[in-house]
Amino acid sequence: MKVDEVWRTHRRWAVLAGRRSRSLHHWRVVNLGLILLGSTLAAIAAHRQWITDSTAGALGATSAAVLATAGIIQTRQLTVQRVADRMVARSASEAYKAVVYRFLAAGAADPDRAGELDQAVDRIETLTADQAVLVIGVEPDDQAVPEVGGITDYRDQRADRQRAWHARGSAKHRQLAQRWRAAELAATVVAAILAVAGEAWNGASLSAWTAVATTAAAAFAAYLAGQQDDRIAQSYARTAQSLESLLRDFDPATATADEAARFVAGVETVLADQNETWTSLFKA
Length: 284
Description:
- The protein starts with a helix and ends with a helix.
- It has 8 helices and no strands.
- By secondary structure, the protein is mostly helical.
- It folds into 2 domains: 1-149, no CATH class; 150-284.
- Helix 1 (3-45) packs antiparallel against helix 3 (80-106), helix 1 runs antiparallel to helix 6 (204-227) and helix 7 packs antiparallel against helix 8.
């Protein structure tokens, strides 16, 4: 198989992985919003002194419908299988990308690289045979094969770019995790304050809003657990650090062929380990 064909296969799996990732994120956000909306409507409906009985009944019915819709989303759109399909797509995409970069890093002077490419593709196809149906009909995007003509290009375009990408990704996911933890903490504090106030003033009307805040805290915690931002940030940081170490100890200008081969193997092992760590975070 030619390297451009392998790259197109990588891009098909990458497109699929991107679609599944965006879909899961979309439905998690929608589900979170529906839970918060449903609990808020229920709390408003409980305040009969504010609204008429007919309005309260309508709000209660709407709240029930909204929360039921959230339940349907959880059972239809946020399933273990959909998460697993996303992991398969990402793993296959990264595996095909790795063999392309290995091929390009070897350079045209390596007489064995075409055979090694075919063997690697055969292994990936065997591993993904049961999931190949997922990518049927998916068209690759127009991202071109990397212009890597040897070990120097590989160092710059693969190793160093991946180091920078994982460093940025670690910071991004760490910030996201901090924001969702802050939202969870705020909702928990509000729920505690409302509960104490309700007991002190015998305010039955506050109990409904205590339930809203408690529900919000639980929903934020569930969202954070589903996104796994904390653990992704940690794994990305480890990957960036490992790549930084490999880059620091390697000089393409003076490296022998064996040293270059070990460098490529080391980089791809780090990235493969990162891919395995990432997928393990979302396993049920």
